[in-house]
Design a protein that fits this description.
- This protein has 15 helices and 15 strands.
- It is of the alpha+beta class.
- The protein folds into 3 domains: 292 residues, no CATH class; 117 residues, no CATH class; 58 residues, Orthogonal Bundle (Arc Repressor Mutant, subunit A).
- The strands form 3 sheets. Strands 1, 2, 5, 6, 9, 10, 11, 12, 13 and 14 form a 10-stranded mixed sheet that branches.
- Strand 12, helix 3 and strand 13 form a beta-alpha-beta unit.
- Helix 5 crosses helix 6, helix 12 packs across helix 15 and helix 13 runs antiparallel to helix 14.
- The protein is elongated.
- The structure holds zinc ion.
- Zinc ion binds next to loops.
């Protein structure tokens, strides 16, 4: 029996497509889903004799992201050519940043069940994307679409600080949350705006001796689920291979593997290239970038409140639970929506409950989302009106649920629905006294029980009155009158 501990070590490279109108070094549009090869020009086609010009907006968005990740922004950076041959890369090199990335030495704080943890960021640099190969279903040929060629990508590289699948997931999701809060990327996963490449290996201590399995880089994962499954699979696979081959498994030979979404397994692609295989050299056609310190300060000051800060504020300012604050800050749209409802209703806590419970339940069953604001029927103004109606006792919480459901399906406001259907709660004492009298007369059994000391009979009487009123009687007022009359 051996005494063994196994620790997984994961670092992540993430490519984030920036939200610019045009490409990184030419004026072609970055729009998605258009006719293949309709957004190309001599620059992004790599024709000889053309000159690239840097897209300032792409640089500004990258610096914002680097600052939000607590990186140091380089006062001096340049561009480098990374050479490789691939049919979707007409220039045969990619313009990237090699030894002088625009941002370095930052961190991203993640949250897991175990608490908060800072994951160090090694570097963040800007580079251009390649095109896309479309492999024909029938026949042995491929077609190339160069619309994507030259699209700006921010590559964010973490230190190998992630130790569990849960941490990897939290890191990826948190990064997506930050770039969308900043507005630097749409981070639409279906459109491939974020691509993840985890580097994974195991540190195994056996009988006091330390070993490491070779590092595996998983290429081009484009969903959180693929990252989770891919990393979990590698953790199991590397341990199994270690058990089989034991000391013959040597650290130092890094390989890249792909991930098969349908089997959930990874497969060998190639032995990893070293940096010198790419023959990096400084791009002679682009000038160095030297951002002014004042400009960087201005961007720093202009950074919006980030997800964790917002979550902390929701807990302290509105008295929400950590869980609810997390749900309400999951997306910037959700956070904005909630704060608007809280402000307009002047009832933040009930507003939080309505958004996280009733509203979430209703929109989930209908496949709607707050994020797709265009077709979202319940504006913050409308929900706030409903929250107020319940808080002020105009309608009960139960009736409120019905009203909400109708608001989503129809076009009417809460006030209109309440008025049209006569749903307003009855709080008028004289009317309620009549209802109580009728209920007492109609239910002599429970009345006798109550007077004989069976206090639970009160519930039956309350139920009878609420039912008779169609749920509209104000329960607080009713219960006061009822007790008073029973003790007469
Ligand atoms: Zn172009």
């Amino acid at each position: 029996m051996t005494d063994r501990t196994v620790k997984m070590i994961v670092g992540l490279e993430v490519h984030v497509q920036l939200k610019t109108r045009t490409k990184l070094f030419c004026g072609c549009q970055t729009s998605f889903g258009d006719e293949p090869n309709s957004h190309c020009c001599p620059v992004c086609l790599g024709l000889p004799g053309v000159l690239p010009v840097m897209n300032r907006e792409a640089y500004r968005l990258s610096v914002m992201a680097a600052l939000a990740l607590h990186c140091t922004v380089a006062p001096h950076t340049k561009w480098d050519r990374k050479h490789y041959y691939y049919p979707d890369l007409p220039k045969n090199y990619q313009i990237s940043q090699y030894d002088l990335p625009l941002g370095s030495d930052g961190y991203l704080e993640i949250e897991t069940e175990a608490g908060r943890k800072k994951i160090r960021i090694l570097r963040a640099h800007l580079e251009e994307d390649a095109g896309k190969l479309l492999h024909a279903e029938h026949g042995d040929y491929s077609e190339v679409d160069l619309n994507r060629t030259g699209t700006p990508l921010l590559e964010i590289v973490s230190q190998p600080d992630l130790a569990t699948v849960e941490e990897v997931r939290a890191y990826c999701m948190s990064l997506r949350q930050i770039v969308t809060y900043l507005g630097v990327s749409e981070a639409n996963m279906q459109m491939g705006h974020m691509r993840f490449e985890p580097n994974i290996n195991l540190h195994i201590t056996e009988n006091g001796e330390k070993h490491a399995t070779p590092i595996v880089e998983l290429k081009n994962l484009n969903s959180f689920r693929a990252v989770e499954r891919g990393v979990a699979y590698e953790e199991r696979r590397q341990l199994a291979e270690w058990d089989e081959t034991h000391s013959r498994m040597k650290a130092g030979t890094k390989t890249t593997r792909g991930f098969n979404d349908s089997t959930g397994e990874t497969f060998v692609q190639r032995e990893k290239e070293e940096a010198n295989d790419y023959r990096y050299f400084p791009e002679p056609d682009l000038v160095v970038v030297e951002p002014k310190p004042e400009w960087i300060d201005e961007l720093q000051r202009g950074l919006p409140e980030l997800p964790l800060e917002k979550k902390n504020r929701f807990v302290t300012a509105y008295g929400l639970s950590e869980y609810d604050a997390g749900v309400l800050t999951a997306t910037i749209e959700m956070a904005r929506y909630f704060e608007r409802v809280a402000e307009l209703s002047a009832a933040p806590k009930p507003a939080a409950n309505w958004v996280t419970q009733g509203l979430t339940r209703e929109i989930n069953t209908r496949g709607l989302s707050i994020e797709s604001a265009a077709d979202f029927p319940v504006t913050a103004e409308r929900l706030a009106e409903l929250v107020k109606a319940v808080e002020q006792g105009t309608i009960s919480k139960t009736i409120g649920d019905t009203v909400l459901s109708e608001m989503i399906d129809g076009k009417n406001s809460a006030a209109e629905i309440i008025a049209a259907k006569g749903l307003a709660q009855v709080s008028d004492t004289a009317a309620l006294e009549r209802m109580v009298d009728e209920a007492l007369a109609a239910n002599p059994g429970p009345v006798a029980d109550y007077r004989a000391g069976k206090k639970q009979a009160l519930g039956r009487l309350m139920g009878a009155i609420m039912k008779a009123s169609g749920g509209k009687a104000n329960p607080k007022v009713v219960s006061g009158i009822l007790e008073q009359k029973l003790h007469q």
